[in-house]
Amino acid sequence: GVLGGSGDYRVRIRFTAAAADRLRERVWHESQELRDLPDGGIELSMQLGALPEVESWILSWGDQAEVLAPAELRESIQKTVARMATQYAGRKE
Q1: What pLDDT band is residue 4 in, cutting at 50, 70 and 90?
Q2: Can you tell me whether residue 57 is helix, strand or coil?
Q3: Cα–Cα distance, 3 to 84 (Å, whole number)
Q4: What's the pLDDT tens digit per position in 48-57?
Q5: Peptide bond into 70 cis (omega under 30)
Q6: CA atoms of 13 and 15, how far apart (whole Å)
Q7: CB of 50 within 8 A of CB of 3?
């Protein structure tokens, strides 16, 4: 599960259809709510006290997850992905 903190964040994440079954397999957080999407994907909502732990977890899903809210989590993920793209761009060994 995701660890706690002193903040109050309503986190919403959209997952692809390919990830939906894995999401349904377990309880990720005690506050979680799942909503089926028309394309076979799923939206996960959770009320969290901190964002760093969930950010790492979201990144582990790769392009199968998209943060919808809160804005600061989405922006943090965007910055991390941009740094990763720069790190991997054009490098050959």
Answers
A1: low
A2: helix
A3: 25
A4: 999 998 999 9
A5: yes
A6: 6
A7: yes
- Given this model, what pLDDT does residue 21 score? 92
Neighbouring C-beta atoms of residue 81, cutoff 10 Å: 13
Q: Tell me the whole-structure pTM to 2 decimals.
A: 0.87
CA distance 6 to 16: 30
| pLDDT band at 89; cut points 50, 70, 90 | confident
The label of the residue with tokens 């309503």 reads: 10
CB 35 within 8 A of CB 43: yes
Question: From the CB of residue 69, how many other CB atoms can be counted at a distance below 10 Å?
Answer: 13
